[in-house]
Amino acid sequence: MRIAGLGVPELLIILAVVVLLFGVGRLSKIGSELGRGIREFRTGLKGDEEVSEAVSQPDPSANKESTE
User: Fold this and answer.
1) How much of the chain exceeds pLDDT 70, in percent?
2) Structural domain contains residue 47
3) pTM to 2 decimals?
4) Half-sphere exposure of 16 (CA within 13 A, CB side)
5) Spatial contact of 1 and 8, defined as CB atoms under 8 Å apart
6) Phi, psi of 33 (to 5 degrees)
7) 30 and 22 Cβ atoms separated by less than 8 Å
8) Does the pLDDT of residue 22 top 90, yes or no?
9) Which residues pair with 51 in a beta bridge?
């Protein structure tokens, strides 16, 4: 298996160096923050779609009030 020209042994060495530099606890914290950020990003995208749908479909009750 090759990813960007790196094999399994090279990837394991890189992983070991990262663990030595940051420590296991800090890596888990970084991973959880990254996951939370991705979730918030997806939620934000869903929220924007709901807002744009609401804007594109006018409220029929608003037309009744303006004509009376």
Assistant:
1) 65
2) yes
3) 0.46
4) 6
5) yes
6) -65, -35
7) yes
8) no
9) none
Residue with tokens 């990837």: 11
SS3 (DSSP) at 4: coil
Pairwise CA distance, residues 32 & 36, whole Å: 6
User: What's the total number of domains in the chain?
Assistant: 1
**Alpha carbons 2 and 9: distance in angstroms, whole number:** 10
54: amino acid identity, one letter: A
What whole-number percentage of the chain has pLDDT above 90? 31
Residue bearing tokens 């029929």? 60
Residue 64 is assigned to a structural domain of this protein = no
Find where tokens 């934000």 sit.
44
- Provide CB contacts within 8 A for 14, sequence distance 6+: 6
Domain that holds residue 40: 28-55
Is residue 33 one of the residues assigned to a domain?
yes
Instruction: For residue 6, tell me if it sits in a domain.
Output: no
